[in-house]
């Protein structure tokens, strides 16, 4: 895949990226309890020119 290389070529922050890795439920949700709510939900609205309410990226 060449997309990550292209994307990183635009990054001038100098901040190291968070590389993909295997995570436990605790790492993701902060809780491994039996019956814990591990769902993640969010709502986005997509308009004619992209996400509604999101700032411009460029």
Write the layout of secondary structure elements.
Blueprint: H1 3-9, H2 25-29, E1 46-47, E2 50-51
Antiparallel strand pairs: 1-2
What can you see in these coordinates?
It is a single chain. The protein is flat. The chain has two helices and two strands, in the order ααββ. It has 58 residues and is of the alpha+beta class. The two termini are 24 Å apart. Helices cover 21% and strands 7% of the residues. It has a two-stranded antiparallel sheet.
Question: Care to give the gist of this entry?
Answer:
The protein is α+β, with helices and mostly antiparallel strands. It is built from two helices and two strands; from the N terminus they run ααββ.
**Head-to-tail CA distance between termini:** 24 Å
Integer-rounded radius of gyration: 17 Å
Low-confidence stretches: none
What is the multimeric organization of the chains shown? single chain
Kindly list the characteristics that best describe this protein:
two-stranded antiparallel sheet; 7% strand; alpha+beta; 2 helices
